[in-house]
Each structure stands twice: as C-alpha cells, then as structure tokens.
Design a protein that fits this description.
The complex is a heterodimer of chains A (663) and B (213).
Chain A (H helix, E strand, L loop, with lengths): L1 H14 L13 H28 L2 E5 L8 E5 L1 H24 L9 H20 L3 H19 L6 H32 L9 H4 L3 H19 L8 H7 L2 H24 L6 H23 L4 H28 L3 H36 L10 H4 L1 H14 L6 H17 L7 H29 L16 H19 L5 H11 L3 H4 L2 H4 L2 H24 L24 H11 L1 H4 L2 E3 L14 E3 L5 H15 L11 H22 L4
Antiparallel strand pairs in A: 1-2, 3-4
Helix pairs in contact in A: 1-2, 1-4, 2-3, 2-4, 3-4, 3-10, 3-13, 3-18, 3-19, 4-5, 4-10, 5-6, 5-10, 6-8, 6-9, 8-10, 9-10, 9-12, 10-12, 10-13, 11-12, 11-17, 12-13, 12-16, 12-17, 13-15, 13-16, 13-18, 13-19, 15-17, 15-18, 16-17, 16-18, 17-23
Chain B lengths: L1 H20 L3 H22 L3 H29 L11 H21 L11 H18 L3 H21 L6 H29 L15
Helix pairs in contact in B: 1-2, 1-4, 1-5, 2-3, 2-6, 3-7, 4-5, 5-6, 6-7
Classes of the chains: A mainly alpha (663), B mainly alpha (213).
Amino acid sequence: MIASLCLAAVVLAALSGVPGLFFPRTSRAGEQLSVAAMLAFGALALFVALRVLLGGGAVELSLPWSVPGGAFEVRIDALSAVFLAPVGLIPALGAVYGRGYWPERDHPHDARQLRFFYGLLTAGMALVVIAANAVLFLVGWEVMALAGYFLVATEDREAKVREAGVVYLAMTRLGSLVLYAMFGTLLAATGGLLLFARSPATVAMRPVFQSAVVLLSLAGFGVKAGLVPLHAWLPPAHGNAPSHVSALMSGVMLKMGIYGIFRVTSLFAAPPLWWGELVLALGIISGLVGVAFALGQHDLKRLLAYHSVENIGIILMGLGLALIGRATGRPALAVLGFAGALFHVWNHALFKSLLFFSAGSVVHQTGTREMDRLGGIAKRMRLTALAFVIGAVAIAGLPPLNGFASELFVYLASLRSVAHPGGPWLVVAFAAPALAMIGALAVACFAKAYGAVFLGEPRSDDAREPRESSAFLLAPMAVLAALCALFGIAPGLVVPMLARAVDAWAPGLSAAAPLASLVPTTAITLGALALLLILGIAALVLRRRPTAMSAPTWACGYSRPVPRAQYTASSFAQQLVVLLRFIVWPRTHRPAIRGLFPSPTDFHSETPDLVLDRAALPLTRRIARAVGSRRVLQGGSIHAYLGYIFAAVIVLLLLFRVGGVLP
Amino acid sequence: MHQLVEALLVSVLVVNFFVLGTSRLNAVIHASAVEGVLLGATLLCLRRDWEALALASGVIVIKGVVIPALLRGAMREVAIRREVEPFVGFTTSLLLGALATGLALLFAGTLPLAPAQAGTLFVPTALATVLTGFLVLTTRRKAISQAVGYLVLENGVFLMGLTLARALPLVVELGVLLDLLMGVLVIGIIINHINRELSSVEMDTAKLSSLQD
C-alpha cells in the first residue's frame, strides 16, 4: 500500500511536465499544474520516507514485468528513505522556485521542456532510490542521467551551455558504462541474482570479486557524485543550468551516486580495511581539492559547484571511517562515521539548495554570475542576503546550523578512529586535520563570496538596481533556511532516524553501539541556543547604540572612493589561492608596470579545472588529431553508416555459414 | 493452402526486385504497398484466429493504404518524381539483389529452424527482403526512396516474425506496426524540412553529411 503510494508519486512526478506541453503559451495552466503535481509528489515522497524512518518498517512491492533479468521490485528501507526524503523535498521546492525563476512568459522557448525534464529527472531519482532490482535501478538511473543532460542544456542557444552539456553527457555515459560492468560482475559472481540487496550470495562472493564490484562502483557512481578526479562535469553543468536545476542536481542528484556507493558497500558483510582507507583518502582529496578550487572561482555558481565536490568529500570521509570501523570491528566508529555521512547528505541537500536558490535570486535580478560585477546587493535584497548568510554559515560548518552538527559527527568518528591501541594508520591520522582545514577554507571562501556579492558598493551597472525577488523565490528559501536551523539546533530529532538507516546499511551495528549514546545532541542544542541568545543580545545592544553615520562603504580614509577601488573577490582570495597553488595552479596575466605614468593596462586571472581543462580536454584534442585521417570512416554520410551495418550483417551471416551452428 | 503461401512469398520476392529496379518513386511506393498487402494475406493464410485477423487487417490498412498515402503526400510537397543518380545504378542494384537473394537461400539452410519452417520459403524470403531493404537504404539518395527501403526492411522483419508466430506475441507486432507508422510520419516531416532548409529540388540525403557529430 505504502509502496504503491510511492510508485504513484513517481508517476506523478514523471508526468508533471506533460500537460504543459499541450497548453497554449499564453496559458498559465501548464505551469500551475506542474507545480501542483510536484508539490503532491513531494508530500507523498516525504510521507513515505518519514513513515519508514520513524519506525514503520521497510515496505516492499513486486509487480509483473516482462523485461529479461528484470523484476519490478520496489523496496524502501531506512537507507532508501534517507535519500527519498531530499528527493521529495528539494524538487518540490524547486518547482515552486522555478515558477518565479523561469516563467513561461519570460522563456517561451524552453520553459516547457525545462518543466518536462525537471519532472523526469525527479521521477528517475525517486526510482533509483526505491528500486530493489538492478534492471529497474538502471532504468531510473538512465532516465535521471539523460533528463539531466536536457536540463543542463536548457539554454542551448549559447555555445558555453552546449559545451557544458556535452561534457556532462560524455561523463555520465562513461559512468553508466562502468556501472554496467559493475552489475555484470555482480550478476556473474552471484549467479543470476539481480537483487540489489545483501543476500547470502553476495556475502559468499570471492573477495576479489567483492573488491572489483566496490572499485567499479566507486568509479561509476563516483562520476555522478562528483568525486575528484571524476568531478569535471560538475562546475560547467552547475554553472550553466538554471539555478533551481543546479540546486536539484547539486543538492540531490549527486547524492544518487553516494546512494549507489552506500548500497554497494552494504552488500558485503566483511569489508577489508583498505576499502575504508581508500574511500577515506578519496574523501579527503575531494574535500581539499573542491574547496581549494572554490576559492579561485570568479563565477558564483561555479564556486558553489566546487563546494559540492568538497561536501561529497566530507560524506565519503564519513563512509570511509565507517568502513574502517566495520573492518576493525569497532561498531561505535562505524555508527558515528556512517551516521555523519547520512546526516551530511541531508544537510548538504538543504544548505546547498538554499545557496543555489539565493544565488539564483541574485542572478535573476542582476543578470550576471560574475562576483566581480556584483556588490552591495544586501542593501536592496535583504531577504536573499539573509538566506545566503544562513546557507553560508551552514556550509562552512559553523554552529548553530546543521552543517556543524553533521561535521561534528564525522569529527567525532575521525578522532575516535585515531584513539585505538593498534596505532593510527597514515590516512586516518589525516582525517581530522583535513576536515578542519576544509572547514577553515570554506569559511574563507564564503566570506569572499558574501563580501563580494552582498557587501560594499555595486561594481557594475548590473548590480545597480536589483529588486527583491518574488515570493515564489523567497518561500522555498524560507523553508530550507528553517530546516537548516532546525537540524542545527535539534539534531536529536534525527538521531533515531539515522540509527535506523545505519542498521539498514549494516545490520546489528546500532544494537552494538547506539548512536544516541555516541553524540552529544543535548550539548549541541544547549550550545546553539546559548549562541543564539548571545547573538540576539549583541544585536540589541548594537542597535541601541546610536553610531549611525552616513558614508560610502569601505571609505577607509579616502576622500573620494570609487567602487572600483574595493576589494574584488579575486583579490580577497588571492593570498589563499597563492598558498594553495600546488593544488589550484592559477593562471594569471600580470602586466609589468614601468615608469612614472604607465599606460592603461589590465590584469587577468583564471583557475582552469585540474582535470577538465588541464588533462581531459587537451588529451581528447590530441587523440582527435592523432586519429584525424581515420575519421574518413565516420564522414557523416548516412549511406556509409548503413552500408557498414549491411556489410556487418552479411559478414556475420557468412561467418555463421562457415562456422556452423551458433554456440 | 501451402501452395498459396508459397505463391505469395514468391510474389514478395518479385516485388523486391521491382523496388530495386525502378526509378520512378511513385511506382516504388506502390510496390511497397503491394508488398504490405501480400504480407497481410500471408498471415491470413497461415492463421485464422481473431488475433491474426486483427493483425492482418492492421497490416493491410497501414502498410497498404495509410503509409503509401503519407509518402505520396510528402512527394507531392517536394515535387520530385524520380530517383536520379543513385550511388549504385539500377542494373547493378538488380544484380546485387539477385546475389542477396541467393545468399539468403544459402544462409537459411544453416539457421537452426523449427522443423515446421525447415523446408519452406519463409526464412529465405524474409532474409532476402531484409537485405533488399538494406540495399535500397544504402544506395539511394532520395529521402523518399530511403523511407521505402526502411519499409521493405521492416517487411522482412515482419516475415521473420511470422515464422515465430507462436512465440512472438501479437502485442509486439502491433507495437512494431505503430512504430513504423510514427517513423514514416517523422520521415515525412523531415522530408519537408530538408526541402525547406536546403531549398534543393533534389531532396538529397547525401547532403546531410555535415550533420556528423
């Protein structure tokens, strides 16, 4: 019953954009219907997820399906439910946001297709988290991956957007290819069982196959999750997609990769130690590289995209610690690490969507994503600025918001992992320092982003006259901000839910080490309340003191300051970028200034992506040049292509004739 | 009954050669319509249940009437009548078609068939029709000729499906029929667009080569 409710919700989401295709462009009905359908989907999905998480038990459903090897089996356990909750919440809020951000009135060419694929992407993701059969899982996966392409390429009139779409498509195809190999290995090793859940057959697999499956899943799901060095598609795609699509992709779609990795690691009963160490190392690298590149960005949305890479790193660090805990027989470590990873999945979905929504609100009003063209927005868009601050504090892992709570779980796990009689391993010893460094750099990065975009004076005419966005944009932000605060102040609320999900991942862990006894939820709540109290008092005191005087921002003793003399985003982050240049490799064009009256000149800096711009694109270009002469075969003639197929059929039949019967 | 089926199958082979050997597009479209009707008749000779009746009437109506009408409509829009300068001349096409039919007979002997079909013309005709369709697709320039090639190819697949009549559910065949109709509709639209964009009277699909990746 509950499972069929969930399936109905999936169908609802998939069809949400369909009516809009048939209404005339002047009619609002299509938009309204799609928002209504997405809200209904969100409510149903959240209801199912919460029911399972609050102790309703796993629900299952199996329908007849005539696909070879496939079975229409749906199963929602606590682990699925943890991921189903953001899949329900964020797309529903995003649909409301999209109503104001991308209305059909302003975008007559692509608003319909955007709504259609938005619904399909959501349905695909929901199917991914509830599927219990590998074929059904892959159906959902492919729907999600392909719908994502059309969403990235919404503004396909622009060359940059098309490029981002192609990079996304190429990488998602590569990821799918690896996933097919992974499921193939699983199928071959377990003998025809395509169930995507722990079974005696998966537990009894030979260790070498188990490791092969885990490695393939890290590669295949890692592409979707944005694991370094497979993150290359993320910055262009998130930068160029409409903001509510970026929010959906960054907040939820990346998590589908994480979900896959979680599922695969739950298939096997006894993970060897090196799995955990590998995942932890990958997490540390992703976290550091992500935040370092974020510091070097000039584009607000690309900056947020690199922070997604960072947060995926934190989630994987939690998983790595949990795997180490399972491998060394320390349930407390496993529970803390995995609960931290799960909690961070939720929190990242909340604050990253909030940040993309508020960034989108700025982009919507100013028409630019370049931080060095913005400035002073907070004076005119107070609510958007407030939303961005809340998101920034949360993502930087500062109390009293939710980012702090989940990062604290991972901190506790990493500290616990070192305190072991056997002595720390190399990777483990670096976990807590790396997390601290990631947090510190994230604070610096958001100080830069907030300072450049919202404070100071407008740097260009784009930022001169923004107006506060409409309620369609503000209401979803308000919901997300409230949830960020709620989870930050009262993490005790989610602890029992997380404990159930931990048990769904590795049965018996919670009984051995109850999560509630491991995390100081009361202390977090009290500390957060005390902090809020102090902040409130400070605000009152400061407001009462009559110190208001009227002067241009950052006048700093100059008699006639101009906006161009402000710190730019780049100059603010320059020191750190130079410190981190062994990771970031910034490229600067710095002209020499000679003489007393130098002629006008310019300075230019950029941070090309380590993988995409420095490795993948040059490599593919070189390959294209190397095989240039052989491309005659692929000349674009339909007739030639059909001829190849024709020849292949004839040759196969001849071979068959010569070779006799098929094997 | 058996002889009737054989006669129908031989007529299918003859129609294949007619498609390969003629340059007038109108005649080619008619030939494909005739082939569709022949297929429906063959199905009726083989089976006399409601399913077969429904499928046969569907095949005859869609392949014999609707699709040819659509193609003639497209042809009227773009005002072309003949296939000129195909990649391979008509005589050569005929020779290649004969070769393909011979190969089909050869291949059919080695396929692991059910005893019911082992000695019949079914599988060779099906293979020959598929190969003919392929030949038309690869050697003709005009979009309409290619659409007909696609139809002939699908006819071959349909014939192959008849030999597996019991195994292949009716729903699948009906689905394929629907696909075919949609395919031809889309081809009709594309033909119009090629005509408008390239403003060439020739409707030459070989000019689409710049559409490569």
